[in-house]
Structures are given as C-alpha cells and as structure tokens.
C-alpha cells in the first residue's frame, strides 16, 4: 500500500506507532425472541463467546492482567453463576434481562460482604455481566490489542475506559472534538488522539504513525517518513523530560507569583502514576465515570470505598469531589433522560441530581463518610440558580444528621459550585458557596454557542474569546474581594497557550489533567505577570 497522509485536529499530544484497529459499531437494542429455548441458546452462546474472548485476551497480555483474566474465565465457567439466569429464562425472561438481573444480584452480594477481597471482586463480575450483554445485543465484544491505533467514527468514554493503554496506542476519529469527554480522558492518560480526521479513516488498515500534537496520521509509512517521525518523537521525549524535572517544585511565575496546581481525576486508576507531592491536591474528581458501563448504579459502600481511596491518596491535600454530572454527552442508562432535543441544555448535573434525590443522597452519604479520611470538599456541577445550591445543602445536612444519629463517623465538607453556566458566572456573588471552580469547557461552549462535541465549530469554542475571558476575570475578582477560593478546572488551565491569559485575568489556581501537570508547571515558569507579558523570554 502507498503511504497516505491524513490531517485532522489535535485532541491529545504524543506520538504513537502501531497497527490500526477498527472500532466495532457497538451494541444495538436487543429484540428478545419470546421463545425460552432460543433465549437459553442465545445466552449459552454469548457466555461461550465471552469466555473465548477472555482467553484470547489473556494469551496476549500476561502478568497481573492475565491472572485477572484467568480469574474471570474461571468465574464465568462456573455453572453456579449462570444457573439463576437460565432458571429465569426457563420461566420466560429474555436472555439479556435474565443475565443482567442474575449478575446484578450477585454483585450486590459481593459488595455487601464485610470481606474486602469479595468487595473488590465485584468489579470482575461487572465486567463479565457487561461483556455477555454486549455480545447478546449484537455488538462484537471488541477486544483492542495492546498498543493499537484505534480508529472509528467516534468513541464513547466507556469504550476508552475499557481499553488497556499501558502498552501505548492512540485514537484517531473521523469526527469528534478536542473538548469532548473522551478527548479529556485521552489527555489525562497521555494517549495521543486526533479528531476530525475525515470519513476515510474509518476503513483504514495496516500500520499508522500518529502525531497527536500536530493532529496528523500517516498510514503505511515509507522508511523516510518513519525516520523523520522518530526524530520528532525524540524531541518530544526531551521536552517531556524537561517537564518531568520541574514536577517536584511548587509552581511560580518568572516574577515569583505562586500558582496552585491541582489535578483532575476522571478515573481513580490514573492516580497510580502520580506522586501526590507533585501537585497541590485534587481540584476535580469527575464521579460520573464510576457510573459508566454498569447495569446498575453503584451503591453507597462502593462509592465510599472509591472516595476514601482518593482522599487517602492525597495525604492531607484538598480533594474536591464533584457530585454526579451525568447528562449532556455523558449519558448514564437508567438515570439520564433519553430523547432530550438538546441534552447539553437539559436535565444535566445538579438538575438531574435534584430530580433523582434517591440517587443523589446515596452519593452525599458516601462523601460525608469519606471526609473522615482526608480533606474532602464537595462541588456541585451546572449550578444555575442559588436555589439549587441551597436544596443540595439541605439534603447534605439531612444526610449528615441521619448518619450521626446512626452512630457513623462523618465530616461535613465545604460545599462549593462549578461556575460553568454563563448566568452563574455573571451573578456569582448571589451564590453562598464555600468555593468556586470555573468549568471552562462548558462555560466556553455555552458562552460561544459552539458545542464542545462538534468538530465543525471547534474554532469558535475558544476560551480566549474576550467574552469568556471577561467572565473568568469577573469570577476571579469576586474571589479576590470575598476571600473565597476560585479555581479553574476546565481544560484551558492545562493549555500553555491559554494559561497566560488566565493568570492575567486574576486566577491563581488551576486544576489540570495528570498528564499535563509537568507541562503546566513549566508553562507557568515562563509567564511574567510583572511585565504584563505572558511569553517566555
Ligand atoms: C468543565 O466544564 O470545564 C468541566 C471541568 O467539567 P466537564 O468537562 O466534566 O463538563
Ligand atoms: Mg462541565
């Protein structure tokens, strides 16, 4: 095949070279046959195929991952696990409903156990449940080989989280945008990603070189292209080493202004590769990812366990945990509202939590309990009117008092809000919050009327737009006058091209993707606020 060059847009920097893997189309809604014998055969076939997939994945991986997969295969092969599902099918249930119900009840049993080992194994059962359900609904159980360049039309965040990126790899999407949630995840994990690469990429095959920062892809490269790619990769490696060298030092501008640099956590697994001493704490935990790819919502114990682990990881540094921000481009089956004409303007974030108090209160209880293990702060997303903050506060107080009455150990956390709705930014002084964090991703899309997931308007969704910067300046000024903490946790904080304007606007705290921590500290060093020039000398 002759070499082909494809130009898209950068969504996450980094270089990758690997075999192309085309993303499967994903599952469809399954239509049950209505015949118990055929449903039983479908279930048995799906279990068999899931088992074969797990075994082939175990062969390719090795190490701890292979042990984990061998354990999953043994679980799946145990007739005791599937018996309740086959009984339900014999009684007339569809294969998918029967499997989902049987596994969900088993998972609840594991989670309720006092034994931590059993609690931890519930994640394996969730994986098995979802793997079999995917096959039943007609989606291939798409197994991405380690180090692959994954190509597709678009990619949901749950798919990203199901791929093992330890061996490298990259993402190239025909559509997509830099500010989508999957792009944000890619930047957090340091996975190179190119979006808006055009429809031809979907049918690519062979080998690909991906330059995430340039937004380019080369298919079936010639030796000379490969050599120049390798030289650029070495230059980037040197830049990464330079960024890594400044990690242990606190961040300060050239004129000596201290800047607090926190990290954003989208998945607790990311923390394994971060030294807590390299940051000033966690400015945003996006808890919606705990709710992804599951047939049921996580219970109080499961949430408490995760929040506690994160709080302990920070070793006394502040940890801001955001309550569920489902909706928009982060749908959660069984929770968010299907069929909204514009989900970004719909029942999203705090709006959804207040509409589903039985789900929200579980999260509040888990957060109150986790506060015993670290400096936990609670943040509400998408707050538009003060009444939402007050309604959430009332529930937090009620759950606090109920837990205390039941003899549980709890700590009442400071309650803050995201400032990501333009009306909230402009009227920030009306909100009685303990702290404010600017969500520049949403603030920018709402202020510029340019959807964060729509590549065609990506140039308009610019945080440097004077209208957006004006709102940031207004919120920062309110923080300075009131003495209340104001930070920014959108992706703009980790963008060296935007950072100077943010500091000029008065911000002194940013929260960035873990992979951007060193780069951000390096960029801060180059900024001179005294001369009013944000450029390096
Ligand atoms: C934001 O909107 O900037 C933000 C940090 O929240 P999210 O990206 O999760 O919507
Ligand atoms: Mg947001």
Question: How does this structure look, described?
Answer:
This protein has 537 residues and is an alpha/beta fold. It folds into 3 domains: 4-24 and 142-222, Glucose Oxidase, domain 1, CATH 3.50.30; 36-137, PtsI, HPr-binding domain (Enzyme I, Chain A, domain 2), CATH 1.10.274.10; 244-536, Phosphoenolpyruvate-binding domains (TIM Barrel), CATH 3.20.20.60. It contains 17 helices and 17 strands. It has helices at 36-61, 63-77, 79-90, 95-112, 116-136, 157-162, 181-189, 223-245, 300-313, 350-355, 357-370, 386-405, 422-426, 440-448, 466-482, 499-504, 517-525; strands at residues 4-7, 9-12, 15-22, 149-152, 170-173, 193-195, 207-211, 216-219, 251-252, 258-265, 282-286, 318-322, 375-380, 415-419, 435-438, 485-488, 509-512. Strands 9, 10, 11, 12, 13, 14, 15, 16 and 17 form a 9-stranded mixed sheet that branches. It has an 8-stranded mixed sheet with strand order 1-8-7-3-4-5-6-2. Strand 13 (375-380), helix 12 (386-405) and strand 14 (415-419) form a beta-alpha-beta unit. Helix 1 runs antiparallel to helix 2 and helix 9 (300-313) packs parallel to helix 11 (357-370). The protein is globular, with a radius of gyration of 24 Å. The model is unreliable at 533-537 (pLDDT under 50). It binds phosphoenolpyruvate and magnesium ion (MG). Magnesium ion binds at residues 381, 420, 439, 441-442. Phosphoenolpyruvate binds at residues 184, 284, 286, 325, 420, 439-442, 489-490.
